[in-house]
Structure formats: structure tokens, C-alpha cells
């Protein structure tokens, strides 16, 4: 428990964090990696260079300070981050290192405003928050290891099959090298893939949604090849597409994630943009087995990059409505009538095609602009916050413009 003095002191820093939060976290990561470069084997280099990790951490620190007297309110965020940490291999011994350089960054950025009282309060608060993370993650490691077919850290898988799904997306069917059973998962969850790219000093870890249903003898991930292989976010996807072949081995961590299909029979609406279709496929196939009322809306640039369209059209789903939106359809798309809307997903269009029943749950995933547009559209249509579920490909950021 934190003392009332500490809580008051932490809350007094909220306005400062609102202004200097990202500067603090940027300095934190710089100092952390200067002194502990081995941690670059865990952190996503692309998110670092794009500034998304710094912004996500700044948001988290701000939220912790704002709700320091009611830490239970940020528990859902703690669990979301803990899933990522467990999938990356974050361990208890990493937390003191992070705490040390976070405090140093606060002192360095705030200068004389970082009084001894403030630094001591943040040290106490960090220890409490870190202990919560460690406890939650320890339980997740145990759960991952003790389930049937499970494991706690890494496990070697073989690429059993590699299949092109569109001009930019390829699926990898992964089977365990030891031939033993594999852990089940919840539709919508992801696995982490660790790759060693020749010439790179550090390993790279990426999370990929599982794009098939649980219960198969393999995991399927479907990876979008980024346009520029020299960019940080394209290094791993281009390596997988161009260099990883059938019978090659990859190192995986067990399925994780708090974005998954709820286990009830309420109607669902699935909305995806681009490669955001991957977790939706697992949800969609599961809802087919349940004969669950489902509306699926997918947005893509055009038919050339629209993956899994044929798989969806042949899916024996007794209660599904399927709608496609192409931003820039090709002539062939128009000739085949392969889409229902040209342009972007809007609240007006969604109002026309969605059932909008009170007990419906809405799941969405895709590029950040798509997710912001969908969140805004659903809100405009009166969908309750607790009925909206979404997944970020990368560090979580705010979807509302006022919080960005």
C-alpha cells in the first residue's frame, strides 16, 4: 500500500507528465539501451524508431499517476501489457533496471522540479506497480506452461507449409519440431516469433495473430510484407517472406493476448482493415462452429491485396453477413462486383449494413487510421464502450483525438 503522502505527491506530477511525459520516456529508452544494449533482444526496434513505444509508455505512466489512488482501475491495461511481456520473455530481474533508468530520466528532464520528495514518491510507486506486473506475469508463465501442450519460454517450430494469400500477405503453417501436442488458444490471440537475421547484432521478436481456429495440429500466422525492407517495421516481415522456407525452424512463445472472442452466444460484428483480418479469421471460423449470428466487414485497398476472400466465401457459416469495402478498386474488382462500397468505412454505411442490436459485441483490428475511424463511427452510432473490443498491432495508443 502506498502512503497518503506518496499518493498526493504522485498526483501533483500529473500536469507535468502531461507536458513532458514523452520527453521523459524518450530519454529513458535512450539511457536504458546505452547501458543495457542486451535488452534490444526483447524490445521492438521499429516501435522505438517510430516513437510508438515512447508514446505508449508515456500514456501508461500518466495513467498510473492519475489513478495512483485507485490502481485497480488500470488493471485491464496491466493485464494487456503483461500478455505482451510474457510473450516477449520479460522477467522479474528486468524491472529494477527499468525502474532505475525511469527515475534517472524523470530527474534529467524535470531538472530542479524533480525534488527529492517527488523522486522518492515515484520510486515507491514504481516498486508497487512493478510488483503487480511481476505477480500477474508469473501467473501467466505458469498458466502457459501447465496447460496441455503448453510451454513457458520458447519452443522450436518447423514451417510445414508456406502459402501466398494475396500480393502482400503470406501464411506460414507452423508445427512443433518435437512432434508433441501444442497449446490451444482463444480466437483472436497471437504468438511471438523470434528471428535471428544474418548480419544483425540483436534478435527480433514480432507478435502475429493466429489466423486459424484452435484445435489444429499447427499454428497459422499470416504476415503482411512491408513495402520497404530497410525500414525497421519491414525487417522481419521481409525476412519471413523472402528467406524463411518450408522446413525451416522458428522459435515461438505460447499464445497470448487479451483480445479474443467472448464465450457466449451474443451476436458479433467483426471489422478489419488490411492485415487486421488475421485475428478476425479465427473468430469468424469459431463463430461458424457455434452458429453464432455474425456480421463481417473487411476494408482493403483493392482485390489484389485482399487476403482470404475465397476462403471466406467458401466458409460454411450458417449465420454470416459479409461486406467488403475497397478504397481504390481495380477494373477487375468492378467487373466482378467483388465489393459493396468504394472508399472508406463510414458511420453512414455501417448504419445501413449493421444490425446494431443492443447485445451485439464489436471487434475491430487494422491500421491505426482505420481503427480510429471505426471507433468514432461506432460511438456515433451509439455503441456502448463496453461492447467495443480492439487490438493494436504494436504498442497501444489512444484512439480518441483528444487523447492522442
Can you characterise this structure?
This protein has 404 residues and is an alpha/beta fold. It folds into three domains: 143 residues, Globin-like (Orthogonal Bundle), CATH 1.10.490; 102 residues, Beta Barrel (Elongation Factor Tu (Ef-tu), domain 3), CATH 2.40.30.10; 136 residues, Nucleotide-binding domain of ferredoxin-NADP reductase (FNR) module (Rossmann fold, 3-Layer(aba) Sandwich), CATH 3.40.50. The protein has 13 helices and twelve strands. The strands form two sheets. A six-stranded antiparallel sheet has the order 4-3-6-1-2-5. Helix 2 crosses helix 4 and helix 5 packs across helix 7. It is globular and about 70 Å long. The two termini are 31 Å apart. The C terminus is likely disordered.
- The total of helices stands at 13
Looking at this structure, what is the CATH superfamily of the largest domain?
Answer: Globins
Q: Helix-strand pattern, N to C?
A: HHHHHHHEEEEEHEEHEHEHEHEHE
Terminal CA distance reads 31 Å
Amino acid at each position: 500500500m502506498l502512503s497518503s503522502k506518496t499518493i498526493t505527491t504522485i498526483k501533483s506530477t500529473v500536469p507535468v507528465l502531461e507536458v513532458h511525459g514523452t520527453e521523459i520516456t524518450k530519454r529513458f529508452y535512450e539511457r536504458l539501451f546505452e547501458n543495457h544494449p542486451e535488452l534490444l533482444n526483447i524490445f521492438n526496434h521499429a516501435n522505438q524508431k517510430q516513437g510508438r513505444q515512447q508514446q505508449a509508455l508515456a500514456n501508461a505512466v500518466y495513467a498510473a499517476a492519475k489513478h495512483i489512488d485507485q490502481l485497480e482501475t488500470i488493471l485491464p491495461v496491466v493485464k494487456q501489457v503483461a500478455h505482451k511481456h510474457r510473450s516477449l520473455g520479460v522477467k522479474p530481474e528486468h524491472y529494477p533496471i527499468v525502474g532505475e533508468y525511469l527515475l534517472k530520466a524523470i530527474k534529467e528532464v524535470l531538472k530542479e522540479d524533480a525534488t527529492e520528495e517527488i523522486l522518492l514518491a515515484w520510486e515507491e510507486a514504481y516498486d508497487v506497480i512493478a510488483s503487480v506486473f511481476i505477480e500477474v506475469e508469473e501467473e501467466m508463465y505458469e498458466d502457459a506452461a501447465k496447460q496441455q501442450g503448453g510451454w513457458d519460454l520458447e519452443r522450436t517450430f518447423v514451417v510445414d507449409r508456406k502459402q501466398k494469400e494475396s500480393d502482400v500477405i503470406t501464411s506460414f503453417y507452423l508445427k512443433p519440431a518435437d512432434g508433441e501436442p501444442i497449446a490451444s488458444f482463444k480466437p483472436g490471440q497471437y504468438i511471438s516469433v523470434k528471428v535471428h537475421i544474418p548480419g544483425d547484432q540483436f534478435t527480433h521478436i514480432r507478435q502475429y495473430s493466429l489466423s486459424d481456429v484452435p484445435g489444429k495440429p499447427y499454428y497459422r500466422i499470416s504476415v503482411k510484407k512491408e513495402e520497404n525492407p530497410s525500414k525497421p517495421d519491414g525487417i522481419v516481415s521481409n525476412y519471413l517472406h523472402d528467406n524463411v522456407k518450408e522446413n525451416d525452424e522458428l522459435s515461438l512463445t505460447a499464445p497470448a493476448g487479451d483480445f479474443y472472442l467472448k464465450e457466449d452466444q451474443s451476436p458479433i460484428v467483426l471489422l478489419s482493415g488490411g492485415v487486421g483480418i488475421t485475428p478476425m479469421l479465427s473468430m469468424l471460423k469459431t463463430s461458424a462452429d457455434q452458429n453464432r449470428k455474425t456480421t463481417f466487414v473487411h476494408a482493403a485497398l483493392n482485390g489484389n491485396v485482399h487476403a482470404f476472400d475465397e476462403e471466406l466465401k467458401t466458409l460454411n457459416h450458417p449465420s454470416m453477413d459479409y461486406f467488403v469495402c475497397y478504397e481504390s478498386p481495380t477494373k477487375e474488382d468492378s467487373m466482378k462486383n467483388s465489393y459493396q462500397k468504394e472508399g472508406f468505412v463510414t458511420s453512414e454505411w455501417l448504419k445501413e449494413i449493421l444490425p446494431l442490436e443492443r447485445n451485439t459485441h464489436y471487434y475491430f483490428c487494422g491500421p491505426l487510421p482505420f481503427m480510429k475511424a471505426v471507433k468514432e463511427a461506432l460511438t456515433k452510432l451509439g455503441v456502448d464502450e463496453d461492447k467495443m473490443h480492439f487490438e493494436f498491432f504494436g504498442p497501444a495508443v489512444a484512439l480518441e483525438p483528444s487523447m492522442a
